[in-house]
Amino acid sequence: MKTEDGTSPQTERTNCMNTFTLEAALEKWRTTAAASEGISKDAIDEMEVHLRDSTTELEANGLSPEEAFLIALRRLGSCENLDREFSAVASLTVWKRRLFWMLLGFVDITAVLTIISVIGGIGTCAAATLAPSASLPIWSILSYVAPIVLFAILGAATCRWIVPIFSHQIVEEIAKHPVLFSIAILVIVLVLRVISYGYTAFAAQSLSVESFGKVATHTTIAGIAIGTLSLIAVCVGLGTLGKSLGQAKSS
Amino acid sequence: MHNISMLRKDLVAASARPLVLSILAEEESYGYAIIQRVKDLSGGVLQWTEGMLYPVLHRLEKEGLIVAEWRTPDSGRKRKYYRLETEGKAALKAERDNWQAVDATLRRAWNAGTTKFATA
């Protein structure tokens, strides 16, 4: 018994419940595979063609596209097994990549903390020069808190929206010119530091010894507070990351 | 009774290198086709998984015995084709000599006690 457009109820039911397309399935597989450390883009391309060939042959043997893909994928082996096989071959590359990420993280954190302390320092000095001494603490706190909040929002937005879309392009671009990237970050950090010290020196000239002492105290306390808070944040982050990695390995 | 299709894992692994080199000596090929060829050559006894083949291929490539190239044949998909290099041909010869030496030794050992190994 066929419906109006000529398809049998069986096909109709299958089409309604099953929106499988090979391209979508392969895209999903690519994303999972790309997340594994040990497999290069080239290897993923090679596996993808293999999956396509496998699927084509299985379909020719009478399986549905979805069944063919599932079996082809099963034969290919889970991504973890492939990861282990390829990792065994390329372990030095894997460690180089890890070290690269660690150094990048260190450089990034240094840059962020420097920017925060610079803005805070400049803000405090400006407040000391311009504002009445009663409101100095408030301005000092504000000039440290403002960049922290800004970075928090920026960081969250990057993780939530930008990284999932662009992570591989970003990683590949950076990986192509790691030295250049690191030098650029270090230059920016140095320039900021110079600006900060320069302004502090300038502000010191127009301040009395007593109020400069106040400024110095505020900036020191703020610096220690930021340092401690960021250390706590890093520990929490590492702990969470370690826990999730541990879960991933055992699953 | 041992099922002949349940070859020992280390045998399958050891024979992978000479088999891949031999298949690529016939003509250049790509991963999926190599697995098919091994299946045909062994009459279905050797069913390699991708997880077994690709690391071998990449190791051979790293040693410079084979070389890989992405190519699109007229009617097909873009694939990574592997080709045997001169060093590969030399390595293949060495593998052949090794296996033939082992094979000859085993045959002599079996012939020495022919009555014990009469097929049932």
Explain what this protein looks like in three dimensions:
The complex is a heterodimer of chains A (251) and B (120). Chain A is mainly α and 251 residues long. Chain A is 87% helix and 0% strand. Chain A has nine helices and no strands. Chain A has helices at residues 9-17, 22-35, 41-60, 65-76, 79-89, 91-130, 136-176, 178-206, 209-250. The model of chain A is unreliable at 1-17 (pLDDT under 50). Chain B is mainly α and 120 residues long. Helices cover 57% and strands 10% of the residues of chain B. Chain B has helices spanning 9-26, 31-41, 50-62, 86-112, and strands spanning 66-71, 79-84. In chain B, α1 (9-26) crosses α3 (50-62). The N and C termini of chain B lie close together (11 Å). The relative contact order of chain B is 0.13. The mean pLDDT of chain B is 86. The interface between A and B is medium-sized, with 20 and 16 residues.
Strands in their spatial order, largest beta sheet of chain B? 1-2
Q: Determine the N-to-C terminus distance of chain A.
A: 47 Å
Spell the H/E element sequence of chain A.
HHHHHHHHH
Total number of strands of chain A: 0
Rg over alpha carbons of chain A: 28 Å
Distinct helical segment count of chain A: 9
Described by strand count, sense and barrel closure, the largest sheet of chain B is: 2 strands, antiparallel
- Largest interface summary: A-B, 20 and 16 residues
Instruction: Work out the helix count of chain B.
Output: 4
The portion of residues forming beta strands of chain A comes to under 5%
| Percentage of β-strand residues of chain B | 5-15%
**Low-confidence residue ranges of chain B:** none
Number of strands of chain B: 2
Radius of gyration of chain B: 17 Å
Average pLDDT metric of chain A: 71
